[in-house]
Specification:
homodimer; 298 residues; alpha/beta; Rossmann fold; 6-phosphogluconate dehydrogenase C-terminal fold; 2 domains; three-stranded mixed β-sheet; 9 strands; Prephenate dehydrogenase/arogenate dehydrogenase family protein (chains A, B); PDH_N (chains A, B); Prephen_DH (chains A, B); PDH_C (chains A, B)
Chain lengths: 298, 298
């Protein structure tokens, strides 16, 4: 049970966390804070938070848990403001999609990441954003990755783990660098590719026709390109090295496929598409199929 | 009303067409044919077709409409077999995703594309395939593109248009080259990118972890990588030039985004992501939003 929970930066993530904890009776009081009143006003109207103040010192005073739920790059600045207000009895966590830059920023501010600061990232989201999109079940049956460090306090880690489990999430711990590499591959790189494809097509003279004849496959493929550009701009900068590695690995593969298409090399094309289909079906559909070694139809 | 409809190559497309026409009472008899009995047997059991024969001459004798519904590259071979069996009273159409190669193949076989051969492409599909996946509503509220040529018979075009409209589809006519360029951009290129990303990740040493932590965005983004690799191998070869142009345009854009990330050029990253979000939201959500010119949060 959390007596006082403070959310810095009330949006989809913070709002959904507050809703879920309240629904479970796992929190007594939720206080919001931030730089502007709009989302805090909406959160208050929607009953997501019990009160708010723009004064961070007031907001976090006496809090058991403080959640930094701002966009990634703002989280770095929030930490600097929060540093002098932290007390040993307060546990701080965040929800940013990249952990390496948060760790580095905390080390610059505090010397080392404080034992009562637990870096975290719920693997949940939506192409929608804002507190009005928050949902009580956003984290239900989703994974939350925590990236504790050698000096992280066991009790702080336990408290944050219990908080996410109260929302119905499965909590997994991993190394900061591993987290950032895995997320670059499965989330950050796909967002970059989807944004890039849509932007490239939108600049084509025939863009109107192109979008008009797009079917369900294109709609699903590009859904993540409707995500908040500010948030993803932040992530692209915050996880730069891992994303660049991901782009380079992808581009190398695309060069091979391009060459195969240009050369009319059907065997290479089929082998790549077939490996991809089987990998995806195995991982997502649980279909550990025997791969058919049938030749392409040509 | 079609008296006898013959489907060459019974799978998702041909099966769904037969189901829809039967449900509308728009066909009396559906005959299947192909090279193997498996899918024809299943189609017969499911009531999708009324009879089948492996003898193409028998299958098409007296048919009002013959639909070539095989994979793209097989369609080229089927035309050669069908050529001596065509009669002036028979209208032939196809459902292949690329039209330029079908046109070229028909010109080689017939000298010119016969007036009673209407090239067509229903913009509908699924990552599932096979006659057992066929659905009565696969074409409902979907577009079907027909690419008639200068010598295409008006009555043949009208019959094929009416056939698709009976399935609830909206029929649009366009030029062969325009069709292939639009489909390369909205369908073929996205499939190549999705296959390439999944294949690249599957070959990563940490593939199991990568897929394990993939969330809904990745699942949607890669859904089309579960499509039939034989079909997409055919399309990649059949629409080679337009797909290569699409890959090159995409790669140039990705190079720019990569450079912006490497340089920490937040303005360029934000501008690209923001243009993409607005283009997609405008086209798919009908949200003709005023673009916010807000700077990124950094």
């Amino acid at each position: 049970m959390i007596n006082k929970l403070t959310i810095i930066g009330l949006g989809l993530m913070g709002g959904s966390l507050a809703k879920a904890l309240k629904a479970q009776g796992a929190v007594v009081e939720v206080v919001g804070t931030g730089r502007r009143t709009e989302s805090l006003d909406r959160g208050l109207q929607l009953g997501v938070i019990d009160s708010y103040t723009l004064d961070m010192a007031e907001a976090v005073a006496g809090a058991d848990v403080v959640v930094i739920a701002t966009p990634t790059l703002i989280a770095e600045k929030v930490m600097a403001e929060l540093a002098p207000l932290m007390t040993p009895n307060m546990v701080v966590t965040d929800v940013a999609s990249v952990k390496g830059n948060i760790q580095r920023a905390a080390e610059q501010i505090f010397g080392q990441v404080p034992p009562n600061f637990v870096l975290g990232h719920p693997i949940a989201g939506s192409e929608q954003s804002g507190v009005e999109a928050s949902a009580v079940d956003l984290f239900l049956d989703h994974r939350v990755i925590l990236t504790p460090l050698a000096n992280t306090s066991d009790s702080a880690l336990s408290l944050i783990k219990a908080m996410w489990e109260a929302c119905g999430a499965e909590v997994v711990c991993m190394d900061v660098a591993e987290h950032d590499a895995v997320l670059a591959a499965t989330s950050h790189l796909p967002h970059v590719l989807a944004y890039t494809l849509v932007d490239a097509l939108a600049q084509n003279g025939a863009a109107a026709d192109i979008f008009k004849f797009a079917a369900g496959g294109f709609r699903d493929f590009t859904r993540i390109a409707s995500s908040d550009p500010t948030m993803w701009h932040d992530i692209a900068l915050a996880n730069r090295d891992a994303i660049l590695q991901g782009i380079d690995a992808f581009s190398s593969h695309l060069d091979l496929v391009r060459k195969a298409i240009a050369d009319g090399d059907g065997d290479t094309i089929f082998a790549s598409f077939d490996r991809a289909k089987h990998a995806r079906d195995e991982h997502f559909l649980g279909q550990y199929l025997t791969r058919e070694k049938k030749p392409p139809s040509s």
